[in-house]
Design a protein that fits this description.
By secondary structure, this protein is of the alpha/beta class. The chain has two domains: 2-274, Spore Coat Polysaccharide Biosynthesis Protein SpsA, Chain A (Alpha-Beta Complex); 277-356, no CATH class. It contains twelve helices and 17 strands. The protein has helices spanning 36-44, 62-68, 86-100, 118-134, 178-187, 201-211, 213-218, 220-225, 231-238, 247-257, 276-282, 341-351; strands spanning 2-8, 53-58, 77-80, 105-110, 114-115, 139-144, 155-163, 166-173, 190-200, 261-266, 270-271, 291-293, 296-299, 305-308, 313-316, 321-325, 330-334. A hairpin with a 2-residue loop joins β7 and β8 (166-173). Its EC number is 2.7.7.13.
């Protein structure tokens, strides 16, 4: 059976001032009329009934997620007492799935990505699942064919072809500089790392024991209590001592070097919506490249993105800027610096403006 695990623990700091600690990006209506996590669940419903969808989030957001996703069974919403990055999150999900279904297959999806062509994603997932039946000892991911040189994404270099649109992964690569990103995009052999993963639960745990033994050893007590009445108590007690590490660095990079990872090429209209700049690219601007969500006027301006709920935003004689207004804060930045919104968070903490976090 296919289980869908949705990782919903992100802080969304690059979407400040709209995204806050108590209401991060994945819980907001950033694109469309559904929150990002609701849209993610909507996408997987055709292939995964609610009882097979598992949400892993932070304790601070548990109640809001239960409110937004009332169709998901209560026991399928797991609240981490403290964030420990993605590797413990996916290990936990595999332990839960394996206890329920020893032959269970998992699709791991971020809660805050945009897919504009879900039918292509669903077809790609079906193709991957067929390949995993042939190669159950492999880990799989989706690679997005670059449409332009992007420095904000990690990349995947493909190796030999295995079947139609599925390749061996040669290596995972960190976010490149502009020159390297152009080389990647031009070569045709590199993909954007989508952050979507697929594997059998037992395979994932076997490989994590091989490549990340310290982490798995730290989670042994948790694994023994999965499915038992005392699981919440043991989980909350033991999880904070689990090492914090990303699944990309801790497992995928190492396993790919040993030929254990495959990648499916796809173009499902994907964006990780990682900053205000990437949101600009998803919207339809006017003839001057301006877009406003809310009341907005542009005079002699080009490439302006404005987002507001109440007050009018007027831009005069400016180009390529982002303006975001909320009840208690305003962000103004050049589009090319939109990734740096998280630096504002650091300064807010330094100045003690905790009510704005």
């Amino acid at each position: 059976m296919l289980y869908t695990v949705i990782m919903a623990g992100g802080k969304g700091t690059r979407f400040w001032p709209l995204s806050r600690e108590n209401m991060p990006k994945q819980l907001l209506k950033i694109v469309g009329e559904r929150t990002m996590i609701q849209a993610t669940v909507d996408r997987v419903k055709p292939v995964a009934p609610p009882e097979s969808i598992i949400i892993i989030t932070g304790a601070a957001h548990e109640n809001e997620i239960r409110k937004q996703l009332s169709e998901i069974p209560a026991e399928n919403i797991i609240a981490e007492p403290i964030g420990r990055n993605t590797a413990p999150c996916v290990a936990l999900s595999a332990m839960i799935v394996k206890q329920r279904d020893p032959d269970g297959v998992i699709a791991v999806l971020p809660a805050d990505h945009v897919i504009t062509k879900p039918e292509i994603l669903q077809a790609t997932v079906a193709h991957i699942l067929e390949q995993l039946k042939i190669s159950p000892d492999r880990l799989a991911t989706i690679g997005i064919k670059p449409s332009y040189p992007e420095t904000g994404y990690g990349y995947i270099k493909r190796g030999a072809g295995i079947s139609e649109s599925i390749y061996q992964v040669d290596k995972f690569l960190e976010k490149p500089d502009a020159k390297t990103a152009k080389e990647y995009a031009d070569s045709g052999e590199y993909y954007w790392n989508s952050g979507m993963f697929f594997w059998r639960a037992d395979t994932l745990l076997t490989l994590m024991r091989e490549y990340m033994p310290e982490l798995i050893n730290a989670m042994e007590r948790i694994e023994r209590h999965v499915g038992r009445a005392d699981f919440p108590e043991i989980f909350n007690e033991a999880y904070p001592s689990v090492p914090s590490e990303s699944i990309d660095y801790g497992l995928m990079e190492k396993a790919s070097a040993d030929g254990k990872v495959i990648v499916a090429e796809a173009d499902p209209g994907w964006s990780d919506v990682g900053s205000w700049r990437s949101l600009c690219d998803l919207e339809t601007p006017d003839k001057d490249g301006n877009f406003g969500k809310g009341r907005f006027i542009a005079v002699d301006s080009k490439g302006v993105f404005a987002h507001n709920d109440k007050r009018l935003i007027a831009a005069i004689g400016v180009e390529d800027i982002v303006i975001v207004e909320t009840d208690d804060a305003v962000l103004v930045c050049h589009k090319d610096k939109a990734q740096d919104a998280r630096r504002v968070i650091e300064l807010i903490k330094e100045k003690g403006y905790d009510d704005l976090l």
